[in-house]
Amino acid sequence: MDVKEFIDQRVEEIKTIVGPEMAISALSGGVDSSACTVLAHWAIKDNMKVIFIDDGLMRKSEPQEVQKVFADLGITVEIIDAQDEFFMALKGKIDPEEKRKAFRNAFYTVFKKAVLDSGARFLIQGTIAADIIETKGGVKTQHNILDQIGISAEDQYGYKLVEPLRDLFKHQVREVAKELGLPEAIHQRMPFPGPGLATRVVGEVTPERVEVVRKATVIVEEEIIGLKPFQAFAVLLSDKGTGIDEGKRLFGDIIIVRSVESRDALTAEPTPIPWETLMTISRRITAELPNVVRVAYEITPKPPATIEYI
Length: 310
Known about the structure:
The chain is α/β, with parallel strands linked by helices.
């Protein structure tokens, strides 16, 4: 792929599609939505509003960190607090597909209000090829797939979708992001699922359970940073395990640590993490999260497993 040629083509495509109308760019801070936002900024500048939806399912301090990165690039990002809407949509949901579809509906519904309030007619989002392949193939529902599976965003939510990266895989998006001038912290950032930490809470998603997996994820990312895996994170299981607290029996949480190597996210192999690193992760998680009594490292490749747990 000729990266510069691709950028030129997509900039012209966005100009042609949006024309003199207003558009909103859906930014999450990952490499896909970040590259998409900069592409759109180059194409339509003042005719675009950038919105970051704080769904309560992000990594620690993510909304503020993303806002600062884009401020340094001269792009203003508006943060919309929609935590209540997302947790309400996920309330009582246990089945992985039900949770993904509930998140998807909340995502597009929140943006519907933002689009209508701004007078925009287009929503620009960072859908990539792997999202489309996995959703259409029945592997799992990606939250940012509508038109490709016969759901009209315009009919259901009142705006048209613009997806400049729809033909690219993750490694190609990284090349585009680098060429667009995004910092390494963005173009080499580990992938983070659209439904956020909801994909890493097995069972019902509540603010309390999300906070457990958020803190555990911070520890995993801090301890594994030198290995630079494709993706590394923590998962909170719905089952409980037996532990000991001050000499007494305790039924506490179980955290799974997952780290994989991949190129396009369609296949993946587990990262060979040094034993000392795994022990440090385990000790820190159980010490800093007192209700966690067990930590395990998961070594299943993709396939047969998916990278995320739901």
